TrEMBL record:
Protein name: Uncharacterized protein
Entry keyword annotation includes DNA-binding: no
Residues in coiled coil: 31-157
Top-level taxon in the UniProt lineage: Eukaryota
The organism's taxonomic lineage, starting at the top: Eukaryota, Metazoa, Cnidaria, Anthozoa, Hexacorallia
Biased composition annotated in UniProt, kind: Polar residues: 1-13
InterPro entries per record: LRRFIP1/2
Chain positions covered by the region annotation Disordered: 1-29
Keywords carried by this UniProt record: Coiled coil
Family annotation (Pfam families): LRRFIP (PF09738)
PANTHER family linked to this entry: LD07988P, LEUCINE RICH REPEAT IN FLII INTERACTING PROTEIN
Length: 162
């Protein structure tokens, strides 16, 4: 804001142009122009001073409103941050619980796989023993049939001999 009493360049150049156009302007005409310029500048300065006085009030009110809005936003963000931290803590607890479950299930799975392997080995062993026993049963039945035939033969021979 320029409060100097110098008239603007355009205002000063107007009297000079008029001076060049009319060979000798009267001193009173030039004085009237300058007085008019001074009045215009004084009015402009007064207007600027009034705006300066009114502007701080308006700016202060705007700044206060902005401050309240920013405070409201800050409080909202603080609440959101607290909720996010609570959710984060809850989720961390959930993750810890799930990780312990995973470890427990993994241990159980490993134990079940070891048991499964031993059960499969036992099953193979029992199946071998079963086949072996069935083979022996088959052989014994064959022997039994053979012996039964011999016995029947001997029995029939004895009957014939009696």
């Amino acid at each position: 804001m320029n409060l100097s009493t110098k008239p603007p360049r355009s205002s000063v150049s107007e009297p000079l142009k008029s001076r060049s156009n009319s060979r000798r302007p009267s001193l009173s005409d030039e004085k009237d122009v300058l007085v008019l310029q001074i009045k215009n500048l004084q009015t402009e300065v007064a207007s600027l001073k009034r705006e300066d006085i009114e502007t701080p009030k308006a700016i202060t009110a705007d700044l206060e409103e902005l401050g309240r809005e920013f405070s409201r936003q800050i409080n909202d963000f603080k609440i959101k941050l607290q909720k996010a931290e609570q959710d984060n803590a809850r989720l961390e607890g959930l993750v810890a619980r799930l990780e312990s479950q995973v470890k427990r299930y993994k241990t159980q799975t490993e134990a079940a796989e070891a048991t499964e392997d031993s059960v499969k080995a036992e099953k193979r062993k029992l199946q071998r023993e079963l086949r072996k026993a069935q083979d022996e049963i088959g052989e014994l039945q064959t022997v039994n049939d053979h012996l039964q035939k011999r016995f029947d033969k001997l029995k029939s021979k004895r009957k014939d001999d009696t």
